[in-house]
Amino acid sequence: MAEGPDAPQVVAIVVSYQPDLSRLEMLLEALTPQVDGIVIVDNGSAVDVAGWHRALAPRGNSHTVVGLGANRGIAAAQNAGIAWAREHAATHVLLMDQDSIPPPGMVAALYAVLQVQTDAAAAGPQYVDARQGRPAPFIRREGLRLLRLECDVGSAPARADYLIASGCLIPMPVIDAVGAMREDLFIDYVDIEWGLRARAHGWQSYGVYTTRMHHELGDPPVRFFGRMLPMHSPLRHYYHVRNAVLLYRERWVPLGWKLVDGWRLLLKFGFYSLVPPRRGSHCRMMALGLWHGLRGRSGPWTKR
Predict the structure, then answer these.
(1) How far from the centroid of its chain's Cα atoms is residue 150's Cα?
(2) What is the pLDDT of residues 188-208, one digit of tens each?
């Protein structure tokens, strides 16, 4: 992306865990023309991601793999990538999941929004999961109402409460001001917690409609009354419920947000306990997540 001495230096941080290597290669090919460097942070995959990367066509010093040796969670991997980017003089980081494919020009479109919005914590694209067939909305709470901001391509950027991590372009000074990703959450609600924390510090997340990223959210969705609803494993639902409750325990989180999100969480608890296959497993793990959240337990789930 850089073109002059004062141009931004954007480093993409790709978090991998048991990746589909062919899709990961597609992601690298899509990212390479748009950024100044790429660091793949691997969370202890069984496949040799570093060896696979070395076998690709030479890409120079702008690409590297950092292996964590074990699954330390998405937040720890993102923080490791941010540390690498800081050491390599990055002005911005682009967070990416292994199951996302950015369109051409995405990074430039996000950077343009950051240049205009002086209070911007981050800018992220609208994303589309082909299995669901419609772009995901951006989310903003107003009072006790949750607004699903669904607009056409070309609309002005949306002021959102948070953005999904994948595709999120963040200026390094904002990370310095707001802080790193919260590692004890391990996975789920990491991006929500950071977005709300940024707002508490006076920064604003912006959803960008002028660019759409392909992104697969969780497991294959479940059909319910003609709608395709996102689906995750019972373990992911444990983290979702537990980390939501951990966030509700924070005094700095607005009460209105806790009430609105808590109602959504209750609906999800009921739906995933009654409708999909393995609903008993989903119910048990969500109940365990609720209990652990109330007790303040965090970190990776273990059978103890």
Answers:
(1) 19
(2) 999 999 999 999 999 999 999
The model's pLDDT over 213-257, given as tens digits with 9 standing for 90+, comes to: 998 776 666 676 666 667 789 999 999 999 999 999 999 999 999
Pairing of strands 92-97, 100-101: unpaired
CB-based contact 117:207 (threshold 8 Å)? no
The CA distance from 87 to 128, in Å, is 33
H or E element in which residue 128 lies:
strand 120-128
CA–CA separation, 274 and 280 (whole Å): 8
Residue pointed to by tokens 């959450």: 185
Residues paired with 219 in a beta bridge: 231
Q: What is the pLDDT of residue 241?
A: 97
Instruction: State how far the alpha carbon of 208 is from the alpha carbons of 83, 149, 193, 212, in Å.
Output: 26, 11, 20, 8
Tracing tokens 């690409």 back to the chain, one arrives at 63
Mean pLDDT on 284-289 = 97
Q: What are residue 103's phi and psi, to 5 degrees?
A: -75, 165
Contact 85, 172 (CB under 8 A): yes
First to last CA, the chain: 48
| Cβ contacts of 101 within 8 Å, gap of 6 or more | 23, 26, 27, 30, 213, 214, 215
* CA separation for the pair 21, 233 (Å, rounded): 22
What is the rounded distance in angstroms from the CA atom of residue 35 to the CA atom of residue 31?
A: 6
Q: Is the pTM of this model over 0.90?
A: yes
Rounded CA gap, 162 and 114, in Å?
15
Eight-class DSSP state of 60: G
Q: Length of the chain, please?
A: 304
